[in-house]
Amino acid sequence: MKAILAADRNWAIGNKGKLLVSIPADMRFFREMTSGNIVVMGRKTLESMPMGRPLKNRTNLILTRNAELEVPGAETAHNIDELAKILEKYRDRECFVIGGEQIYRLLLPQCDTVYVTKINYAYEADTYFPDLDRDPQWVLADESEEQTYFELTYTFRTYRRI
Questions:
Q1: What are the Cα distances from residue 91, in Å, to 19, 52, 94, 124, 132?
Q2: What letter would DSSP give residue 66?
Q3: How far are the Cα atoms of 9, 80, 92, 102 from residue 154, in angstroms, in the given order?
Q4: Which of 44, 24, 126, 19 is nearest to 5 (CA)?
Q5: Domain total in the chain
Q6: Angle at the Cα of 44 from the Cα atoms of 133 and 129, rounded to 5 degrees
Q7: pLDDT at residue 50 above 90?
Q8: Residue 160 falls inside a structural domain
Q9: How much of the chain is in helix, strand and coil states, percent to nearest 5?
């Protein structure tokens, strides 16, 4: 399992149910990595999607405690065991955890790779990803050259579990 996200310099990933910023190259990277694969998200992340609908060209899995939730175009799991059973059907494809904070924290122990678009700016935020730079279980395996989008600078990073 892998995780993919954009985080600011404080590892913030969102504020009031929205992404901190929309960077076209980051969105393109996300699309390229996840298209044709599996994405796992929580209910709040699903609701933040355009029109609250699952992402196209992906198998969408929603992890939620809400037993009543049914999402056309997505499968729903209510705990990690249910999620694992669903994922058994898709062993031939990559699985990406795409948020939000609770889902990342719950599934990070099962991830071996994390793709981070690291933004060199500190936003007002209420949602965070664990700081992989301070976690001895993770190593920065790759980092792109610095990119710019208007006044923002950022890099694409790949972290691997040791």
A1: 30, 27, 8, 38, 27
A2: -
A3: 9, 33, 32, 25
A4: 19
A5: 1
A6: 5
A7: no
A8: no
A9: 25, 35, 40
Strand locations in 16-137, DSSP E? 18-19, 38-42, 59-63, 74-77, 95-99, 113-119, 127-128
Q: Measured at the alpha carbon of residue 22, what is the angle toward residues 20 and 27, in degrees to the nearest 5?
A: 125
**Would residue 161 count as lying in a domain?**
no
Query: pLDDT (tens digit, 9 = 90+) per residue, 87-127?
Result: 999 999 999 999 999 999 999 999 999 999 999 999 999 99
Residue 31 lies in a domain: yes
Over residues 125-142, the mean pLDDT reads 98
**Domain boundaries, position 92:** 2-155
Q: List, in sequence order, every beta strand (DSSP E) within the chain.
A: 2-7, 12-15, 18-19, 38-42, 59-63, 74-77, 95-99, 113-119, 127-128, 138-143, 147-149, 152-161
Distance from C-alpha of 87 to C-alpha of 61, rounded to nearest angstrom: 9
User: Is residue 10 within 8 Å of 125, Cβ to Cβ?
Assistant: yes
Q: Residue 44 is part of a domain; what is its CATH number?
A: 3.40.430.10
At residue 86, φ and ψ (nearest 5 deg) are -65, -45
Q: What is the pLDDT of residues 60-91, one digit of tens each?
A: 999 999 999 999 999 999 999 999 999 999 99
